[in-house]
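Everyone, carefully examine this protein record:
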Amino acid sequence: MGEDVITVFQSANWILGILAVFVLVILYIGVRYSSKIEEGDDLVLAGRGLTMPFLIPSILATWICAGAIMGAAGEAYLGGFQGVLWDPFGPVMMFILVGLFFATRLRKAGFTTVVDFMNSRFGNRMGAMYMVIQILSAIGWLGGQLVALGTIIYLTTGFSMLISIIIGALVMILVTYMGGLWALSRIDAIVFVLIILGLVVMFPIVMEEVGGLGYLLENAEVYYEVPPFTIFPASEEDGGFLGYVGILGFAFWISAWTALGLGDLSSQVLLQRVLAAKDEFTAKYSFIISGFLYLIIGLIPVTIGIAMYTNGLRLPEDQQELVLPWVADYMLPPWASTLFVVALAGAIVGTVGDTCLITSTMFGHNVYKYFKPNATNKDTLRMVRIAIPITMISALVLALYFETIYKLIVFSGALQLTTVFAAFVFGFYWKKANSTGAIWSFFTGFVSWAIFYVIVFYGGMTEGFVWDAVYISMVPGAIISVITLIVVSLLTQKSNPPKEAIDAYGNVM
């Protein structure tokens, strides 16, 4: 195919018209559900009343985003399954772990945010540190989604990326501000149906183009010349893991599984869904079911990415995340192209709204209460709504600076893994974990991550690839964080007695 470029969709007028209708629908939903919102919990937790038909789509819509669709297709185009262990394979593991080990405990305890858990288990200082990390990682995640939403607007209208990203941010501020999680959960359900329809239409067309799934499995190729369908490091002759071999290759492989697979276990973006569930049963099984559904859905764009490289598509280096939009524009009939792009935009809209709301919740519920401990629920509601545009503007700045999708999303999980993962997990499952151990774990994990990054990157081990060095150095940083929590907690049991942990029934142990 040579080197192909995608500029503006050929069916842009149809796409733009339907997107305009879609925006009006979600604005209507926001207005309709605004009447249900009288206090903070109504906005951020939908009154703790989400049932499975709405909770599962809400969970999936948060993760079936630009990373799992556009970003993952582009990374699979480059590195096959090895390139997408971060997402979708890592989050599948994470969903199931949350359902099995954390959902029941958190939902039973009745917190509003996970910051509340950290405050109760390790004290306000650790809660504040956790909150900072969550806000930074969520804004990074949100920035990646705004880039993707801006890309869709750019490919539909021909506006510059700057204008496109700003338009996307303004629309999402309105939706999130008015309807909160009540509205977003309904939008997520609509989006879930749209994205399934879009992928189901696209997949057989692409498979027919490349000669069928059987032909692809036998003849697949990817840009990095590694085995396309392996989730394990290959031999040195076959490229190792994305070109790295030995201890570096192994560390890179571990980072791929754990950056989101373990790092996002403690994510407020994820666990807000647990806290909004109708009951513990709903929270637990919604996450387990979501894990299996996410694997099935996530493998569709991944397979399409591999298929398009095998079929000869050669995109410029700065357009590899546009594999799916290219397929929609050049291979699908106009009606199918329109359906897919609208579904893609809908998925991104759901993620942007959900992430913005959750980040704003931490500002309004937790930061505000540090300064006004006696704040009422109505006070909290007002501060959450004030925080929504502030959060979106912060993510907008980040999006305009980096203009990348997949790497911003993965970085958010890596940041959590090296700082707050150990405190979150041991806070539930080890009675002796104390605040001193948690705080030391936070700082030693982050500092060791930075030190190993300098060694790996400036030592030339990644040949100038910044993000590779970030992920590889994350692994020893996370290990040191866990070891520090255990050792320091044991050494300071008398000077800093641990607070109560929470058992499987939401009761203190």
User: Anything to note?
Assistant: The chain has 20 helices and no strands.
